[in-house]
Every structure is written in structure tokens, then in C-alpha cells.
Amino acid sequence: MNIQAEIEKIKHSLMESGYKLTTQREIIVRVLLEHEEDHLSAEDVYMLVKEKFPEIGLATVYRTLELLAELQIVAKMNFGDGVARFDLRGQDHEHMHHHLICHTCGALEEIKDDWLLELEQRLEVEFGFKVLDHRLDFIGNFSSCPNKNCKSHQ
Questions:
Q1: Which residues pair with 84 in a beta bridge?
Q2: What are the angstrom distances between the C-alpha of 37 and each of 23, 33, 85, 90, 123?
Q3: 134 near 88, Cβ under 8 Å?
Q4: Phi then psi for 101, rounded to 5 degrees?
Q5: Taking the CA atoms of the chain, what radius of gyration do you get in angstroms?
Q6: CB atoms within 10 A of CB 19
Q7: How far apart are CA 10 and CA 111, in angstroms?
Q8: pLDDT, tens digit (0-9, with 9 covering 90-100), for 4-28
Q9: Which CATH number describes the domain made up of 1-92?
Q10: Distance of alpha carbon 53 from alpha carbon 84, whole angstroms
């Protein structure tokens, strides 16, 4: 992934909505891009941003993440652990990707393919319902879960 090209796309999205890509916003976006697979919490983002930009405040990180979520640049998600996590929306996909979540250890795996397009088309034809977005999380246990109490080991 070309991080600078992705930043330019996000800058353009912000400008279309009347916002600027400030230095603080750019650093936050860069951290999200550099850690795309990690599904970072606001606190995680804050700690990583603070390494590069020590004067930034936690409130700025929260406000920026909320703005990016409002503009659908990132998705705000909760995987059942009570922590909001932020995930960049792929520019090349119409919808959010899906997740496999281990109920026991919390491990997370992404599914990049959109398996629901046929269902969306059927919903539109049968119910006149045009799906604007969707997200699908599967909760279960990985056979590779390190937790020996995991149901998949029994």
C-alpha cells in the first residue's frame, strides 16, 4: 500500500466535506494506515501518535477519530469487549470488510471479499430495500487458539 497516496485520497475526502487535513489529522491517519491490520482503539492511536507528535492531546485524537467515522473514512466498531476500535474503510470496496473473532482469546481475522452482494441484490429486488452499507462479524473459536480452554480444543 502506498501510504502517501492513501493520505491524498483521505485529504480529498476531507476537503469535499469542508475540512482540512491538519498536521494532527494527518499523523492520526498515518498511524491508522501504518497499523491497518491492528483495529486500534482511540487510546492505542493516541499512544502511537504521541510518539511522533508529543504535544497532541487525547481529546484531539478522539475528535479526529469521530470526525473520520462520521465522514465514513474509518469505521467505528465494537467486537464485544466494550472497546471502540477504528478501522480504515477500503477505498476499493463499497462496504466494510468482515471479521472472524475468536470468542476465547479475541484474535481477529479479516475477510476482504464481500460475500453479501448477492443478498443485497435480492433485498433490493424482493423488498425494494437498497443496502447502503453492512458489516458482518462471525464470532467463534479458531482451531489455532492458544487458550487451551477454547471449545475448539475439546
A1: 78
A2: 23, 9, 11, 12, 31
A3: no
A4: -125, 125
A5: 18
A6: 14
A7: 23
A8: 888 999 999 999 999 999 999 999 9
A9: 1.10.10.10
A10: 23
Q: What is the DSSP track for 120-148?
A: HHHHHHHH---------EEEE--TT-S-T
**What integer best gives the mean pLDDT of the chain?**
82
Specify the pairing of strand 98-102 against strand 137-140.
parallel
Residues 6+ apart with CB under 8 A from 25: 14, 19, 64, 67
Instruction: Read off the pTM.
Output: 0.66
Matching CATH number, 94-154, of 3.40.50.280, 3.30.1490.190, 3.40.30.10, 3.30.40.10: 3.30.1490.190
Neighbours of 48 (CB within 10 A): 20
Sequence letter at residue 72: Q
What's the burial of 123, exposed, middle or buried (CB within 10 Å: 0-12/13-18/19+)?
middle
Q: Where are the domains of the chain?
A: 1-92, 94-154
Q: Length of the chain in residues, anyone?
A: 154
